[in-house]
Design goal:
Elements (H helix, E strand, L loop, with lengths): L35 E8 L7 H14 L4 E5 L7 H5 L6 E3 L2 E3 L1 E2 L5 E3 L16 H13 L6 E7 L6 H9 L4 E6 L3 H16 L4 E6 L4 E2 L6 E2 L7 H7 L4 E4 L4 H8 L12 H15 L1
Parallel strand pairs: 1-7, 1-8, 2-6, 2-7, 8-9, 9-12
Antiparallel strand pairs: 3-4, 5-6, 10-11
Helix pairs in contact: 3-4
């Protein structure tokens, strides 16, 4: 096609001309001083299912296994990661970028709450501004030798998940759900979005699966029978964890001591994440 007749849409053109353009990539480069291994997104179709809990505890488990973990809190308007880890000091920076805060065991974290003068102040921004901040958490923050960077995403399939999927080299996502049947339909939306964006889905984590009776040890299901297996099998996925409702876990998250939680129910999910590091090293 002659230059004067070119419409700049190479995807709809069969000509093999010298000016033919490669498909555009929206991937953003990380800070030049960052060293990041695998990027894992933790998503949910709706709020209130425990996504931030799963994100935090997976980072804790990977840190215990000798890896270096980080958490990018992409839930700008509802950030909870600093509270879970008991981190309240504001982040600092230098001429090269922003330095993430560190938890007691050395997990690197960045969150909108660590930038605000008052951590209870609401972030009343429109979508594009929120999406730009998420990008800056990737491009401006110096992630120092992080083996696994977990991205705690806001619920749904809106601006921020789209920004993360397009701008960050996400190696896989974990979908967090709860036992209610209504949630199963919403989970399908999150899984379908990931597939449309060609992001691998590592598996499903079900939170609030059961309550264990303190007297007899029987598992009681307050939300009824689980639909996680049914939903996961529909997409050829595995249920990697079933997390109980545990008042002690809630109390430790509230007082900022998540790193003291044993979290044995998440070991299989942690194994799946750790396997990404091994496959990448081969």
């Amino acid at each position: 096609m002659s230059e004067e007749n070119c419409n700049q849409n190479c995807s709809a053109c069969g000509e093999n001309c010298p000016s033919r353009r490669a498909p555009a990539s929206f991937l953003e480069k990380p800070n030049a001083h960052s060293r990041i291994g695998r990027v894992i997104g933790v998503v949910s179709g709706k709020g209130g299912v425990g996504k931030s809990l799963v994100t935090s505890l997976l980072a804790v488990l990977m840190q215990r296994r000798g890896f270096s973990a980080g958490v990018l809190d992409a839930d700008i308007t509802g950030p909870s990661i600093p509270r879970i880890f008991g981190v309240h000091d504001k982040v600092t920076g230098n001429g090269d970028g922003i330095l993430p805060a560190k938890t007691r065991t050395g997990i690197q974290i960045i969150s909108a709450n660590l930038l605000l003068e008052d951590e209870t102040a609401p972030v009343i921004w429109r979508g594009p501004m929120i999406a730009n901040m998420v990008k800056q958490f990737w491009t401006d923050v110096i992630w120092s030798d992080v083996d696994f960077l977990f991205v705690d995403m806001p619920p749904g399939t809106g601006d921020v998940p789209l920004t993360v999927f397009q701008s960050l080299p996400v190696d896989g996502i974990l979908v967090v759900t709860s036992p209610q049947e209504l949630v199963s339909m919403i989970v399908e939306k999150a899984v379908n979005m990931a597939k449309m964006m060609k992001i691998p889905v590592l598996g499903v984590v079900e939170n609030m699966s059961y309550v264990k009776c303190p007297d007899c040890g029987k598992e009681i299901r307050p939300f009824g029978d689980s639909h996680a297996e049914e939903t996961a099998s529909k997409f050829g996925l595995q249920v990697l964890a079933r997390i109980p409702l545990d008042p002690d876990v809630a109390a430790r998250c509230d007082d900022g001591s998540a790193e003291e939680i044993a979290a044995p129910w998440l070991e299989k999910a942690a194994d799946t994440v750790a396997a990404l590091k091994k496959s990448g090293d081969e």
